[in-house]
Batch of 4 targets.
Target 1
Amino acid sequence: MGFYDNEIKRVCTNNPRLLILAINSIFKKKHSLSAKVAFLDKEQNSGDSEDTTFLDSLIEIESNKYHMEFQLLEGNMAIRMYEYAIKETIKDLSGNSNHDDKQCRYEINVIMPEQTVIFLAGANKKDYIMVNMTLPDRQMVSYKLPCISASMSVDELCEKDLYILLPFQQVQLNDKMNHISTRGEKAKLQISREIFEYHLCVRDKLEKLLSDGILTLDEHNCLIETFSNIEMYLAGKDTFVNSEVIRMGDKDYVAWSDRVREEGKEQGIEQGIEQGIEIFIIDKLEDKVDEGIIIEKLEKKFNLSIEKALLYLDKYRDSN
């Protein structure tokens, strides 16, 4: 889960507005989208105040605390979630010695954070876990712990304002890629196609959200980066799958650049083309492709002049 942890936490910390949209949707809240988001549970590393690791997603927005637990697969999280909530609650326990009952030494206020479990993969679409807690005096307290499956379709995620989960669609293929060494070439080709189908679906949705003004350019770029990182992580587990995904991507750059030119040259679309050129050049440079071949492909794939292709190559060669 370590790789996905890093991607989740980077997306959440860099996109506070999208995180608030998700929290408002999951917990039926109405927090201002410009509210400050505080990540409460973090640990300093190696004495560097700039270097922090978020131990878990314990978040505070407008004096409300939320615990968001991300899990790779479906499972019974009730005990772990309760244990975590109690551990965090104890840190902030407050006592009051002015109780009306004169026999009471003092009272303790236990206020647990609101919690949710988000499963990145798995088919279970049920909405909540029921937690039944029996207190020492035998009273029972029950509460629902909402569950979210990132495996729902991109349209379903958008309907629920869960844009922040869009980059994690390909995680559904994590188990297949973990067992890819046992598959034949035909099966590997099918998995490659599945990875790339997710690529097309999510990328097109993010481009639409950008052009419609639902995502800002920074949010769009961060989600695209996370999505690309996950794609490379999964495809990189097998040489054949990786080469097939790259080959499909080369063909897609042509179709994509043609399509966006037909749709017009609005700012968001132009920025999308620019990003496609950047990704293409950096990928080829990392693969140590001859620069003459890169320029030739830029001319064909993006309809660039030699002069323009050289300018782009110089720009991204230096940044790489």
Target 2
Amino acid sequence: MEGKKIETKSSFFESKKAMILCGAIIGIIAVVLVKLGNPANMGFCIACFERDIAGALGLHRAEVVQYIRPEIIGLVLGAFICSLFSKEFQAKGGSSPITRFFLGIAVMIGALMFLGCPLRMVLRIGGGDLNAIVGLIGFVAGILVGIFFLNKGFTLKRNYKTSNFDGYVFPIFTVGLLALLVVAPAFIFFSEKGPGSMYAPIIVSLIAGLVVGVLAQKTRLCMVGGIRDAILFRENNLLLGFIAIIVFTLAGNLVLGKFNLGFVDQPIAHNDGLWNFLGMALVGWGSVLLSGCPLRQLILTGEGNVDSAVTALGMIVGAAVCHNFGLASSGTGPTTNGQIAVVICLALLLSVSIVNSISKKNA
């Protein structure tokens, strides 16, 4: 009987109902966070929130995007606690860590060209931002390129079991961030204007992150995985979660009068279609090579995956690089430096894809 109970529990979280319920809860939480103070169409954004954390730690000095986001802390700790209780925590790493670090930087450069991660992309769609539809098309195109190389044998090699402490390091780091947020010492930077100054109450944001972290850990929610599985295996379970996020975000925005359909006058967004497309193509391609979107990387980090922790650190460094060298877009559009950086990163991804496909054939 005990075995049957465990099997039933596992099968529920892998079911379509679970994915739709997960997406519905995330969509509702995202709308509530915006209502309580987060920037518009930004109940969650992994890239933007990691950028704010980088700024709060002084890794960049863009004064409008500096804040330690409790949502990121909650996502990691929620996945960590859940994986410990379900005995799914397993410390492992060693799968091309330096490559993953630079891929994390590249993904962040693409995300800040578009001004959002895949999760914010669907939240923007739910808010009526048609620029996010252009981003979605680019995202799918990037995933298709990544799938092409997967079919050619691309791999970043296997990972290996390591000490549990290695898996604990990043969750401990997030606890340290929470302490810095609460204590607010003088050496931590907090925005007084701009998106970084807009946030929901700390306890609400932390609880929201914990809930989403648990849900994403149990359902394996991943935007890249959803599109990849739909294309490769005709399996749409993961995709249903993101469709539900859009539907419930749309409903919430309509109820609150926050829905704004169009390409212009969208919050923290620009309407340069080419670079919205290319930015998200970079994110999609890079995420396929990394085996997960930015959200999934944080969840895997909570489960003890050291390679995903390296990727997350790469994204934080990437955010600092973007703002220190003028690569990040703004509401007025992309910068020339950012455009050059995206092209360089696309060339990097092509090189990584080819080399790691050839090495597989020669292995």
Target 3
Amino acid sequence: MRNVITLTTDFGLQDYYVSAMKAVMLGIAPEVRMVDISHEIPSQDIMAGSWIIRNSAMLFPSGTVHTVVVDPGVGTDRNPVAVKIGDQYFVGPDNGIFSLLTQENDYKAVRLTNEQYWRVEKSSTFHGRDIFAPVAAHLSQGVSLEELGDPLDELVTYRWTVPIADNEGIEGMVIHIDKFGNLVTNITGSLLEEVVGDKDVKIYVGNTILEEIAPTFGAVAEGEPVAYIGSSGVLEIAINKGDAKQMLGVQKGAQISLILQKESPI
């Protein structure tokens, strides 16, 4: 038995969608424990959903089933899938939502074709309730991946732009903005260590220039911008007790430049 199911969606909590999924799950697996990872993924933002589960899913107990529904292509020919990565299971659309996990880990996947594990009444616009919720519940009750459908060798995969590094510095981009307005970049801590190390650097973001990478928010005065390595292991830009997105006027996709400072000749 796998007794934990998580839910990650872009549904929000205003409507009945999340509760309908949970109702279906409880009808199949009444003893299961449910954990909401997030229901505030920006609408139809597949890569934002991928980022959220990449940083949370693998922390759960062995055998956890993760239901992930950010599904702008619902009802089209995109595949519904179940995936096993390590000791974790995932159920959702094959639209790139699992990209950040599958590019870092080996996986086994099936296309969900066995309608025995779906709701009998199926809508063309709510596969979260009618396919993914019941499949996740059946998985939690010990149904094997192989029983759910046909093997799938390769999932749809999206990749964020890779940062460019040379002896001048690093060019990266903002890939995610969290609830606090912190700007999350695609520049990893390991790349920073390799390229910057203990050299002096200037960090250009929007119209702002920062001159150091600090250990945490409180290393600067309240209201001041700060660059640091965040909990997901990448460079982030924040405002101490403020909103960097709003105060710096920076959106997702914005360029981040780290320029190494050359020593002045004597």
Target 4
Amino acid sequence: MDNLITNIRIGASHEPPPHGPWSRVVLESTIPLTPVIAGGGAEGGGIANAGAFAVRVPGVRLNMPDCIIPVHDGLVATVSASSRGELTLLEILLEHAAPVSIRLDEGMPYQLEIRFDSRGAYSVLKDRTLAIDPGHGGRDAGGRGPVNLVEKGVTLNLAEYLRRLCSSLSIPHYLTRDSDVAMPLRSRVTRALARSADAIISIHTGIERNRDIRGTRVQYANPNGREMAGFVLVEIARKLNLPDRGVSSVETSAGRNPFARLHVPAIEVEFVTLSNPVDEGLVRSSTFMHRAALAILNGIKNYYWHSAGD
């Protein structure tokens, strides 16, 4: 039997301990593996540094082409694997430093599991309250997709996915609405101020007359939200592989934007363009909605790390 890496599995859990939060990479092979840490180290009490965590696995080669696997789960950015003769090189690109553990399991297939504790990645949000604002509601249905999916329901659905993520990661948060009720814009701002929100994330979808237009746009509702909008757009575009429609300012009539004078970031996330048939189909998938919520949360996380000088 050839000495082969037969599969590379990527996984993440965003549940509370002991089930998470963690990110892991699993190599499956035809023989027992003897990994060697080649750089980025597990030194210092098993802490992997931010950047490249490199592992050399001698005596075995990939049963697949060399590859770069995009992950973007909040801790692991990408996983690269390549063969050099009877040697496999693995490079895991980490966005933050993290405790790492390595486990070898014998059997068929043999497994090498590299697991990173991702609690530290989200620690920057532990003392920040996020106001999650599902756009529209009640008689204000918002836009409508080609197959009659209504924006107010889509935004509430995504807000619920985001709420679950925040709850599992112990991130303070609340929803401005959790049912199909009308909520005037000024009432949303009043609620945010009453709960001492550190950021306001309004969930919307794009609506265009031209149904060929699709993708993600993030708008900032006040100057403090401009930089956060950029971080969120980057994460959504690369996590969901959607067209990037850019960052722009919320277009409102003069004096009608109650977010404008707030001292905390306020953004509107049009995570898909609902008027496009492809985008409307995507939001019917629970997997897609979870990934969209995770991308938004990771964009916010990255903004605060950047603001902290990490």
